[in-house]
Structures are given as C-alpha cells and as structure tokens.
C-alpha cells in the first residue's frame, strides 16, 4: 500500500489512527460519491449517512492529508468576510440567514466530538487580538454585529489589562474573547470523523485520486484502478483539486500558510504564555495564529504564499513572528515546520454550487474554514434531502475570476497582499 504519506507535522506525529484504508480497485454503485476526505468531504459524508444515504469517499492521499489535517486547529466562528460584507452583497433580509448560520459550524464540531467520542484535545475559548486602536474599533463593531445576529452569550471585549490575562505579550492593545471559539487537534478530528463515517457504513478509499467525473445520471467517478457510479457527487478537493473541475478554477486560487511547533514547554512556561489555554489570532489581514497543543507545545502559524508553492525556509518565515510575540521563547527548540494550502476567492467567501444536475461543490473559504466546512457538509446533506434554502443562499453569492486569468492571479493577489501588509504595518 503506497498512499502519499501525511506531510511531516506535529499532527501526523501524534495521530490517533495510523491505519491505511484500501485503494479503490473495483466498480461500485452508491448514492453519493464524495471526492476528498477533508472536513468538507467528511462532514458531508457523515451528515448524508445520518440521513440514510449510501456514501463512498475517495481520497487522493490520506484522510485529512490536505488543510484539514495541517491547520492551526482554531475554531473560529463566522466567515472569512463577515456578515456585514455579505449583507452589502445580498441585502439585510437575506443577510439574516448568514447571521443565523455564523456560529453553527462550531456547534457541529462539538456535537461530532461528543456523539462519536472523538479524542482531539478540544479546548474552549478563542481570542481575536488587536495590535492597534483601529483594530480594537473593528472588534467592538464585530461584537455588536454578531450580537445583532443573536450570538449574545459568548463574546467579551478585553482591554489592555484583560488581554494580558489571556496572552502574555506586550504586542496587543486589547482583544475580543469568543467563548464558543476554541481549538482542536485538526488531524485527529478528521480521523475521528472518518471513523464515524465508517461506523455508519460509509466506505473510504485512500490513495484513490479521482481522474475524471463523467456527468450523467448516474455520474461516473473514475480513478486509476476503479470507478464509482453515483446518483450524486460531492466535490470537496478544495485547494488540492487541481484541474479536475476546470469550471471551478478561475475564481479561486490555492495559497500556502506555514506553521511551526516548539518542543513541549514546561507547565510553568505554557501557563505563563497562555494562562487560560485559549487560541489566539491577531487582526491583521496577513495574520498570526497560535495556541498550545494537548502536550503543551506552542503551535504558531502565519505567512501566506500565493500560488501555493512550498517554501523551503518555513522556520525563517515564522520564527521571527513567534519571537516578536513571545521573546521569552528564544531558546526553545522548534520540532516541526510545515506548510499547507487553503483556497482563496476574490471575495474571501466560499464558492458553492452545482455542476449539471447532480454534482455539488463547496470550497474556497479563504483561510477560516474549520467551522464553515462542517456547516457546508450539513448544507450539502440538506440539499440532497430536498431542502435547498441554506445551500442556495451560499450558492447565490457572486464570485469573480481573478483579473488576468490563471497567469496573473498570483501577481495580482501578491499585490493585494502587499497593500494590506503595508496597511497592517502602518496600523491604518
Ligand atoms: C496551514 C493552515 C492553517 C489553517 N488554520 C486554520 C485555522 O486555524 N482555523 C480555520 O478555521 N481554518 C484554518 N485553515 C483553513 C482550513 O484548514 C480549511 O479551510 C479546511 O480544512 C478546508 O477543508 P476541505 O475539506 O475543504 O479541504 P482539505 O482539507 O484541503 O481537503 C481536500 C482533500 O481532497 C483531496 N483531493 C483533492 N483532489 C482530489 C481528487 N482529485 N481525488 C480525490 N481526492 C482529492 C485532497 O487530497 C485533500 O485531502 C488553515 C489552513 C491551512 C493550510
């Protein structure tokens, strides 16, 4: 068995389940064929199985091999662009639906962990940290916005003294605590969800890259050594989908972000950095995100590489950021470094819809996807069960191709990122 191994990360090194699933080497028939075993694919599979569909999942590499098994592990509510931006696009009335759904993904994750007994180091509490007063103003507006949409219990503004109580650095002027945020071991969440899929009779094949999808009723999904005839197909390959569905390519772009992980810290050091064990992300456009692992390592991420080339100098990109936040870690060893790809859209809102009559997709949540992907799976199950309202709300969000097409989408976005980096640095 020679499935592409997981990237060498702290998560792969501490995975709960190292079983390799078989490669597809037969012809199968099923209700739904899911392409990709990240959160989008696994959440779809699980919701569909729970509502009585037969499901086959085809994964090119390993379960959670993509962003879902490599991310910062931060349960961040709402979307990569907030509800007010969506309201400007779809109007206040339709915007309400997005407001209602904004915290649902986090609840789904917790339900999954509880119901299927998934061991993935869940900790509650996420902090948005402001580097200047302008960002503080944004956080206050964000709190008011989320509360106006009914999310009233869990948010707390932190002043300068308040943020020092949750993250021991002088970088921040304040922040906002979301008690319904939190963090998880992302790969172990994906592996636990995969086990849940199998417990309900779902079949997962690894090392089974889909090479072609022949539209029709049924559709035929082909791999090198097998094929699946399915009434419905769910495309969940996100930043790793490549050219499989050419119609999805122009309006999204894979981007890399990098993560480093320290050696396990002493209890005393860990507690001094993040006394409440919350996860933290700052409010910059190109943001830093960090948290403690279950065994008290600091997991620190940041940086964006447009076009998703793998940088070979991850430590030199991320370590200075970590030491700027926590200079007290200057003598600590870095045990792991890795990169992973997320999928960016121009609007930074998810790209959702149908191809033909029976092929559904959701991708491109542009950086914050841990919660949205779990919601996406539920929405896909709803639409296949004949309840399309919520799926169609996302599907109606407009998307635009990157200017200049494939050749120019990297330079264009890099230019955009440069502009935002300068704004972040100047605090404007
Ligand atoms: C380093 C990093 C840090 C991040 N941190 C956070 C965070 O802290 N919080 C947050 O909210 N979001 C974060 N994100 C984003 C989040 O991880 C993603 O939005 C989310 O995991 C996407 O899930 P997915 O299932 O859509 O895609 P993926 O997890 O990438 O899964 C897609 C899967 O499809 C498979 N595939 C692709 N093509 C085919 C094919 N042809 N045939 C079969 N299989 C195929 C791939 O192998 C892959 O396993 C981060 C992303 C990265 C990369």
UniProtKB/TrEMBL annotation:
This enzyme's EC code(s): 1.4.3.-
Top-level lineage group: Bacteria
Keyword Zinc belongs to the record: no
GO MF terms, alphabetically ordered: oxidoreductase activity
A Pfam family assignment: DAO
Keywords recorded for this protein, A-Z: Oxidoreductase
Keyword Ribosomal protein in annotation: no
Coiled-coil features, chain-numbered ranges: none
Every FAD dependent oxidoreductase domain range: 31-382
PANTHER family, sorted: GAMMA-GLUTAMYLPUTRESCINE OXIDOREDUCTASE, SARCOSINE DEHYDROGENASE-RELATED
Protein name stated in the entry: Gamma-glutamylputrescine oxidoreductase
Organism: Shewanella khirikhana
Taxonomic classification: Bacteria, Pseudomonadati, Pseudomonadota, Gammaproteobacteria, Alteromonadales
